[in-house]
């Protein structure tokens, strides 16, 4: 049934296989086995796509209901586990994973040596309700009713660049001077450019000479003189070669939220990790 749902949502067997981390032949066999078990044809097979038959469309909502019920059962069972051991998946951005969490997680390891941390490093917001992670550290407040969130505070972020780069191009003293320099920013660039323009900075996409979905790559490129970027003050302070730009005049607030699922929050191991992160990450930022 999971193979059937993934094929519907992704539109093809190959895309569904990638989403589930399986091979296409394995997924195809699973879908065919479901059709044989039910005695129906769920898809019209095309060269590149899989189109739902009328029967498949009628069964789709029933399969979704079963999947959601299974997910709720899994969440409830995980929440009742009393052992302070096992796997805990944390999703977090690249910069936080690289420059904030290592000492925090080493301290956690000393406190709970039987907990195994699976760190999912991504700028994408993972779905905790669907168990894509147990705990998330986010810069945005979640809005799902089934999630438990704790606001750890707001950290300041600033423009910064390497000393070498600023020595070459000059130190900006006004927003207008930012129009003449190179930038390092996230990919896709429209995740940040409209906000900067709305804040009064007349920047263009052409000024971003290096873009990446990796926060660590952006930080390292800035350190090596590729241009100006925006980083949390707590991370800028870790690198003596980085210089904040107009720190007293230009600052961006970055909220820090710690999030988990309501059911998982009753699990001792999840609760231990959640409470440890709440204290340590708040202090780190």
Number of domains: 2
Percent of residues in β-strands: 15-25%
Radius of gyration: 23 Å
Roughly how much helix do the residues carry, as a percent range? 40-55%
Quaternary structure state of the chains depicted: single chain
Tell me the series of helices and strands, N- to C-terminal: HHHEEHEHHEEEHEHEHEHEEH
From the spread of the alpha carbons, the general shape counts as: globular
Entry keywords:
D-Maltodextrin-Binding Protein, domain 2; 285 residues; alpha/beta; globular; Arc Repressor Mutant, subunit A; two-stranded antiparallel sheet
Question: Quick summary of this structure?
Answer:
The protein has helices spanning 2-10, 13-20, 24-38, 54-80, 94-99, 101-111, 163-169, 193-198, 215-223, 233-236, 268-284, and strands at residues 43-45, 50-52, 86-92, 115-121, 135-138, 147-162, 183-186, 208-212, 229-232, 242-245, 252-261.
């Amino acid at each position: 049934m999971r193979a059937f749902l993934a094929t519907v949502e992704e539109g093809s067997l190959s895309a569904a296989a990638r989403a589930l981390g399986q091979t296409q032949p394995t997924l195809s066999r699973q879908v065919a086995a479901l059709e044989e078990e039910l005695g129906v044809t769920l898809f019209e097979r095309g060269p590149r796509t899989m189109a739902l038959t009328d029967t498949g469309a009628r069964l789709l909502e029933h399969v979704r209901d079963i999947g959601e019920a299974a997910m709720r059962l899994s969440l409830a069972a995980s929440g009742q586990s009393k052992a302070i051991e096992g796997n805990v998946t944390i999703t977090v951005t690249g910069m936080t994973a690289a420059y904030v969490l290592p000492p925090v997680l080493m301290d956690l390891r000393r406190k709970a040596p039987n907990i195994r941390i699976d760190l999912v490093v991504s700028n994408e917001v993972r779905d905790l309700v669907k168990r894509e992670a147990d705990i998330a550290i986010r810069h945005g407040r979640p809005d799902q009713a089934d999630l438990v969130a704790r606001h750890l505070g707001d950290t300041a972020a600033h423009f910064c660049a390497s000393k070498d780069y600023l020595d070459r191009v000059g130190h900006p003293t006004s927003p207008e001077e930012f129009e003449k320099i190179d930038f390092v920013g996230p990919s896709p660039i429209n995740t940040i450019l409209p906000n900067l323009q709305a804040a009064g900075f007349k920047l263009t996409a052409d000024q971003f000479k290096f873009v990446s979905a990796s926060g660590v790559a952006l930080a390292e490129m800035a350190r090596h003189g590729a241009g100006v970027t925006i980083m949390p003050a707590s991370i800028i302070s870790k690198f003596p070669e980085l210089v904040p730009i107009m720190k007293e005049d230009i600052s961006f607030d970055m909220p820090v939220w710690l999030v988990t699922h309501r059911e998982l929050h009753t699990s001792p191991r999840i609760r231990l990790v959640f409470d440890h992160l709440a204290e340590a990450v708040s202090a780190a930022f």
